[in-house]
Design goal:
Elements (H helix, E strand, L loop, with lengths): L1 E5 L7 H9 L4 E8 L6 E9 L2 H11 L3 E2 L2 E2 L1 E4 L26
Antiparallel strand pairs: 1-3, 1-6, 2-3, 4-5
């Protein structure tokens, strides 16, 4: 189960996130997302737990709980394509129309 954790303290590290979730079961991975330019936390992260029942228990217990002095939000992570928006191919790339350039 992939779990989304938000409103994290900017001081919370991946290991802190892992430790909080390990109280509820085996954690496959835990990572706080860092800004690639500043190297600072973006205030959210993801935890992967192999057992869905343990993951649901962790979500239930940790959502709206305190971690590093902040009340955090914890929920099942949505797949990227399920997050809403216009869907489909979003094109991309500045003013170039998103097409391939050779």
């Amino acid at each position: 189960m992939n779990i989304f954790a938000a409103k994290l303290s900017f001081d919370t590290q991946s290991e802190d996130l892992r430790e909080a979730f390990e109280e509820f079961g085996e954690v496959s991975s835990a990572s706080v997302i860092m800004d690639k330019f500043t190297g600072k936390s973006k205030g959210f992260g993801f935890v992967e737990m192999s057992n869905d029942d343990e993951g649901r228990k962790a979500i239930s217990e940790l959502n709206d709980s305190q971690l590093d002095g902040r009340t955090i939000v914890v929920k099942v992570a949505e797949a990227r394509e399920d997050r809403g928006g216009s869907g489909g191919n979003r094109g991309g790339g500045g003013g170039y129309g998103g097409g391939n350039r050779y």
